[in-house]
């Protein structure tokens, strides 16, 4: 889908909804200027780019580096629950 920058500004909600289904190209001065993507589409592109460059997933890198600590925290939460979980907003 292609829209002008003015149309995108005036119908932002519709553009965002359409972007959940397909990329929306925004034109400025008669040329494609930008693209609106869903988060899922963006994550797929970013993941493909990282794999192409040989970069690891940042979440996986963090987990591998702090695996023992993460596992210990998960065990603690399973045993005792999450701190403050019983608290409610006023």
Summarize the structure.
The protein is α+β, with helices and mostly antiparallel strands. Helix content is 57%, strand content 16%.
Overview of the structural elements:
- The protein is of the alpha+beta class and 90 residues long.
- It folds into 2 domains: 2-37; 40-80, no CATH class.
- 57% of the residues lie in helices and 16% in strands.
- It contains 5 helices and 3 strands.
- The N and C termini lie far apart (45 Å).
- The model has no long low-confidence stretch (mean pLDDT 89).
Compile the SSE list and pairings.
Blueprint (H helix, E strand, L loop, with lengths): L1 E3 H6 L1 H8 L4 E5 L2 E6 L2 H15 L4 H8 L1 H14 L10
Parallel strand pairs: 1-2
Antiparallel strand pairs: 2-3
| Assembly type | single chain
- Approximately how much beta-strand content do the residues carry? 15-25%
The overall strand count is 3
Listing every helix as H and every strand as E from the N terminus to the C terminus, the arrangement reads EHHEEHHH
Tally of alpha and pi helices:
5
